[in-house]
Here is the input.
Amino acid sequence: MDWDRRLFDSLIPLPDGTSYNAYLINGSEKVALLDTIDPSMTYVLMGQLKDVPKIDYIVVHHVEQDHSGSVPFVLEKYKDAKVIISSRGKDMLIDHLLVPEERIITVNDGETLSLGDKTLKFIYTPWVHWPETMATYLVEDMILFTCDFFGSHLATNNLYANDKDRVYESAKRYYAEIMMPFRATIKNNIEKINAYEISIIAPSHGPIYNEPSFIIDAYKDWISDTPKNIVVIPYISMHNSTKQMVEYFIDSLTNRNVYVERFDLSAVDLGKLAMSLVDAATIVIGTPTVLAGPHPNVVYAAHLCNALRPKLKFASIIGSYGWGGKTVEYIEGMLSNLKVEVLKPVICKGLPREENLKALDDLAELISEKHRGLSI
Ligand code: FEO
Here is the structure.
């Protein structure tokens, strides 16, 4: 349990900490450890293994170091232990953790491994969220160990996902920040695990799901191609022109029953912005012109949005300038991953005048029409 961690990948905010879940399965003949933990907390795992005399297999579902980082230490303690990993993961594990090749056994998709009275079945689940990712199905207990897939960044000593509202929020944040670019492969992987009877989903971040449908249904909603009647407005303002436009525009959308999520990029939790992008149909970016282009905070947010590849259908830009610049072209060029229709931007010189406000009303009306066209 990493109660105090506040940033992941030096990028992702973790307001509620996180956990790194490793699972020990004692079979009648063999013992397997499923995943390890972040190297910063190796001492915790090694303490928990203090009285475990034997581990035969370390199953690495995913090479990212928050799960595999302690593998070298576990291998050091258990001299006969072997790493079990997907074929794609083998070289990655050697590259990232310098694990000796002779300690690694690769398994194929669907292959099983007997621990005696327990059977592990390995299910490749590629691209959730790296290419080598796989899950393990514990056949006799119908438990699916999914590593990052279905995980949540949430530190809690509530082992199960009973506090549904809280877990939903954390799991959605996790999906938004980590999984969203992989909606197509998530869909394939959900179809794949549908073939299994699952009593418990045990991810390697956050609580365990003893109602698997709770998180599977949430994922189905998040990956669906149908967005919601939401306009996300990330913006920043230097001398209030852009802010005035944003406030007017929000009123105009509100009058048309379009729901708005607004983020002031001078002080935003980018995780919240990412979460709003899970559902939104439209993004309207608000920026002043500075150094001939968009504000650097807007550049950062636009880059993130483009990288996360949300299901957005429409995009536009509103903002202001003093004497010139290429703000619109710059931002449009940054959104090339998004399959969006770009709606005519509204850019004004200095403070917005009557004609600029009218253009904002026209943009709000167009967005409203576009959303109605999607039946949302
Ligand atoms: Fe939890 Fe992709 O690591």
Summary: Residues 62, 64, 66-67, 129, 148, 205 surround MU-OXO-diiron (CB under 6 Å). The longest strand covers residues 280-290. The CA atoms of residues 158 and 308 lie 30 Å apart.
